[in-house]
Design a protein that fits this description.
two-stranded antiparallel sheet; 2 domains; alpha+beta; 18 helices; 455 residues
C-alpha cells in the first residue's frame, strides 16, 4: 500500500505541465536581482558594507571567504551581469551557476549583513541550477531551437513552490511564541514610529492594532502557501500576498524582500493559464521567443537520479535545520543559538551596548577599546547583541593587540542587552576571557541566562 502511494506521488511529480511559469519565474527573479545589484551600487553600499570595514564577521566555517579589496565592485558587476543573462535565459546554466556563486559569496563576506531574504535567494538560485528554466522564453532557444520545450516535469515548479511553502510555514511557526502572540512584541514598539502615515497612521498608536497585526501575521504565514495551492482560494490568497508585503514595505525598511515574495508567489498560479497568456500576448515575453512546439523536457536517467538525491538532501536539511535551536538551553531570542537560517522574520527588537577591555596577563596593564576604530556603525550594532559576533570580535582584538606587542592579551567584555521592550541586563559573563573561548556548535556557557522579571 505504501509503495503504491509513493509510486503514485512520483508519477504525479513526473507528469508534464507548461514551462511558461518556470520561465516567467526565471525572468522575474533575475530582473529583481539585477535591480538589487544596481540599488547597492547607486546607494554606495558596496564600499560602505564590503570595502570600508577593517574587520569582517564570518559564518562558522567560512572564514576563508575574503573580500576583493578595491576590486570588490567587480564581484557585484559579475553578479549583476549573471542576473541579466539569467533573466534573459542566455547561456542559462552558466549564468545560474555564476549568479548563485557570486550572490552567495557576497552574502558570506560579512555575516552582520545577514537577512532572511538573502538566504532565501541563495537557496532558490541553487535549485534553479538544476531546473530547465530556459526551456521557454529564453534567448538560448534562439541560439539553439532544439532546447525549446513547452512542457517540463511538474516537480520543477513544485520544488520552488515547496521552498516558498517552507519559508512561509516556518515563519508562521516562529511567530507562535509568547512575545509575539501575547505581548504583540516587537510590533508594539515599531508601529507607533509610523504614526505619521496618512489615513492609517493614527491607528498605530493603539496597542490593539499591534495585536491584530501580530495575530494576522501568524495566521497569514501558516496558511498562505496552502491557500495559494488551492485553485478556489488562489486569487484571494495572492491579493493577501500583495497587500501584506506592500504593507511591510511601507512600514519597515527591508529592501527588496516584499517584491521578491510578491513576484515569487506567482509560481503557484496555473501553468496552463500562464502559457496561454504568453502565447496570446507575445509582448509579455519582451522579445524572448515563446515556445510553439508541444514537446516535453526529458532528463537523462543519470540526471534524474543525481538531481533526485540532491533535492532530497536539500529539502531534508530545510525541514530539519530550523529545529536545531532545540539542541541548546535557554531562551532562543536571548542566546540566538540556532536562530539564523530558520525563517524567524522580524520577531524581536534587541539593542545592546558592548564595551571591551584588553588586559596584558604578563603586566596586568588594561586597555579600553574604542569599537569605532575597528567596526562600522552597522557592525557594532549587530555585534553587540549576537554572541558569536562578540566572540569573533574578541578574538580579533586579541590578535590585534598581540601584533602590537602585548605579550599575552586577555579580552573581557561588559555587554548589556535589552530585548523586546524589557530593561537592559547583563548579557555575557564579564569575568570570562573571551579570547580563550572557542567558536563552535557547542552551547556557549558564558552567555548569562535569561530570567523573566515579574512586572
Amino acid at each position: 500500500m505504501l509503495n503504491k502511494r509513493v509510486t503514485s506521488i512520483i508519477d504525479y511529480l513526473r507528469k508534464p505541465h507548461y514551462s511558461a511559469s518556470l520561465a516567467f519565474f526565471r525572468m522575474a527573479f533575475g530582473t529583481l536581482l539585477l535591480l538589487s545589484m544596481l540599488r547597492f551600487w547607486s546607494k554606495g553600499w558596496i564600499g560602505e558594507l564590503y570595502v570600508a570595514p577593517a574587520f569582517y564577521f564570518k559564518y562558522f566555517g567560512f572564514s576563508w571567504v575574503q573580500n576583493w579589496g578595491d576590486y570588490t565592485p567587480w564581484l557585484f558587476f559579475i553578479c549583476g551581469l549573471s542576473a541579466l543573462f539569467f533573466a534573459l535565459g542566455l547561456f542559462y546554466r552558466l549564468a545560474a551557476i555564476l549568479l548563485f556563486l557570486s550572490f552567495t559569496y557576497i552574502e558570506l563576506l560579512d555575516a552582520t549583513n545577514y537577512l532572511n531574504h538573502y538566504y532565501f535567494v541563495s537557496l532558490v538560485l541553487f535549485l534553479m541550477i538544476f531546473l530547465p528554466a530556459n526551456a521557454n522564453l529564453a534567448l538560448d532557444n534562439k541560439r539553439n531551437p532544439a532546447t525549446s520545450r513547452r512542457f517540463v516535469p511538474r516537480w520543477t515548479t513544485g520544488s520552488i513552490r515547496l521552498m516558498l511553502g517552507i519559508v512561509y510555514f516556518y515563519a508562521g511557526l516562529a511567530k507562535l511564541n509568547a512575545d509575539w502572540m501575547l505581548e504583540a512584541m516587537p510590533l508594539r514598539l515599531w508601529l507607533p514610529a509610523k504614526n505619521d502615515l496618512p489615513l492609517i497612521g493614527s491607528w498605530f498608536n493603539h496597542a490593539a492594532t499591534a495585536y491584530v497585526f501580530s495575530w494576522f501575521g501568524a495566521l497569514y504565514d501558516l496558511s498562505i502557501a496552502f491557500l495559494l495551492l488551492y485553485a478556489r482560494t488562489r486569487i484571494w490568497a495572492y491579493l493577501a500576498v500583495v497587500i501584506f508585503h506592500l504593507m511591510t514595505a511601507i512600514l519597515f525598511p527591508i529592501g527588496m524582500f516584499p517584491y521578491v515574495m510578491i513576484v515569487s508567489t506567482l509560481i503557484f498560479f496555473d501553468t496552463a493559464a500562464m502559457d496561454r497568456r504568453f502565447r496570446k500576448w507575445k509582448a509579455l515575453a519582451v522579445g524572448l521567443p515563446v515556445c510553439k512546439n508541444n514537446l516535453n523536457y526529458a532528463f537523462s536517467r543519470v540526471a534524474k537520479r543525481g538531481i533526485g538525491i540532491v533535492f532530497v538532501v536539500f529539502f531534508t536539511l530545510q525541514v530539519l535545520l530550523p529545529f536545531r535551536f532545540m539542541m541548546y538551553p535557554g531562551n532562543l531570542f536571548w542566546t540566538e543559538q540556532g536562530y539564523r537560517f530558520s525563517w524567524r522574520v522580524m520577531l524581536m527588537e534587541k539593542m545592546g551596548y558592548a564595551q571591551f577591555v584588553v588586559k596584558d596577563a604578563a603586566t596586568g596593564e588594561t586597555t579600553g577599546v574604542n569599537n569605532n576604530l575597528f567596526l562600522t556603525r552597522n557592525q557594532e550594532k549587530m555585534m553587540s547583541t549576537q554572541p558569536d559576533f562578540i566572540l569573533q570580535y574578541a578574538h580579533f582584538l586579541a590578535r590585534h593587540y598581540k601584533e602590537r606587542g602585548m605579550q599575552n592579551p586577555e579580552v573581557y567584555a561588559q555587554v548589556y542587552v535589552a530585548m523586546n521592550g524589557r530593561r537592559s541586563r547583563l548579557y555575557i559573563d564579564p569575568t570570562i576571557d573571551l579570547s580563550r573561548q572557542e567558536d563552535n556548535f557547542c552551547n556557549k556557557e558564558w552567555i548569562l541566562p535569561f530570567e523573566e522579571r515579574k512586572k
